[in-house]
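INFO  loader      accepted 1 record
INFO  loader      residues=193
INFO  predictor   begin
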Amino acid sequence: MLKSIEINSVSGQQKRIHPHKFTLWVAIGSIIMMFAGLTSAYIVKRDQPGWTTFEIPKVFWFSTAVILLSSVTIQLALKAFKEREMSRYKNLLTATALLGVVFVILQWIGFSMIWNSGITFHGSGAAQFLYVIAGLHALHVIAGVIALIIMFGKAFSKRIRTYDSIPVEIVNTYWHFVDILWIYLFVFFLWIQ
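INFO  predictor   done
INFO  writer      dumping tokens
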């Protein structure tokens, strides 16, 4: 009987989620609720008088391709890390960080194009929602890029390394989430037009 209790307690420990992963999932849930609320409010408010629509710049198609590619590279980086292929991991992490920066630049160009077309924050309700939603997403992407740069710094550090995959898994999950969130927003703004 004692042996079965020990086995159950050991198997119970294996099923626990790491506290950092749990925190990440709680944060992701909160972020999803925030963006669901904002996009729902956008739908409700779009029938008001003076609501201005806007055209989605084509550069957003390129930024979407870039962030999708970055999800592939970060997934491959995680795989390389777990297989202890550190040179490959460093290369893929570098590629992901660079793609993240390119995504931010392309987003800046796209939103500058919208701004220059006359859709400013002080204009219609559509513009205000657009910039609030895009700004909040940009903050999350920038946080992801900062996390990638920190991981990049750790990967190239000369200090003694531990091969704990939890930080890499957390950054990987967060980056995939930011990718999915952008795709949701991109499809939403294409559909809403």
